[in-house]
Amino acid sequence: VSRSPSVTRDIALVVGRKARAMDLERTIRKTAKDLLAGVKLFDVYDGEKIDADKKSLAFSLTYRAADRTLKDQEVAERHGEILAALQKENGATLRA
What we know:
Elements: E1 7-16, H1 21-32, E2 36-45, E3 54-63, H2 72-90, E4 93-94
Helix pairs in contact: 1-2
C-alpha cells in the first residue's frame, strides 16, 4: 500500500486501423517511466465520427510517485511528454 496518492488521467487517441494497443501501451510505459503506476485500455471506437481508416483507443493512466505526492504540473508535463511520444512513434493524434 502506497502512502502517496495516485492521479488518474485519461487519453483518447486516433490511430490507424492497424495500430495495436500494445504498441501504444509500450510507448506510454517507456515515456512515463517511474511515475506510471498503471495503464488500462478502456475504450476502442471505430464508428461514424472517425475516418474509415482510423480508430480511437482510450487509455486510463494512473500516476504515482513512491516517495511524494505528485503536483498537478508534474503530471501535466509527463502526460504531455507521453502524447508527444505517441504522436512521434505511433502516428497518434489526440481525439477531440
